[in-house]
Amino acid sequence: MSETTETIFSKIISREIPANIVYEDDLALAFKDIHPQAPVHILVIPKKPIAKLDDAESEDRDLLGHLLLTAKRVALEAGLENGYRVVINTDADGGQTVYHLHLHILGGRQLAWPPG
Ligand code: AMP
Predict the structure, then answer these.
(1) Is 66 known to be catalytic?
(2) 23 - beta bridge partners?
(3) Residue 5 in this model has a pLDDT that exceeds 90
(4) Which of 27, 20, 47, 31 is nearest to 101 (CA)?
């Protein structure tokens, strides 16, 4: 599966399903992950329906930068001054399960490396 049509995240953007939203602007939305893997686990998504990182184009350069800056802002607003991790799982081997591009922000504990 690699197409972006209707995903659970597009339904969160349209408010068809609820989410714990912590940040929103014209381009991006951030909300708490429903199955947190760390004390803080927030997802940052573009409102533009890009299925996965592989599908981003050079025209998305500013949007991708905006998503990273949004991740930084959201992480610091969540109190992660000691650090955090930003992860983009991409396609099957990357463990992606929702095909709407998203950045995981994980923090609030010491994270192990390498990830599994
Ligand atoms: P990935 O495996 O990288 O595609 O991550 C998808 C993430 O979306 C997982 O961490 C899920 O827990 C999370 N998730 C799935 N459905 C929801 C939802 N309705 N609200 C918030 N997070 C969700």
Answers:
(1) no
(2) 30
(3) no
(4) 47
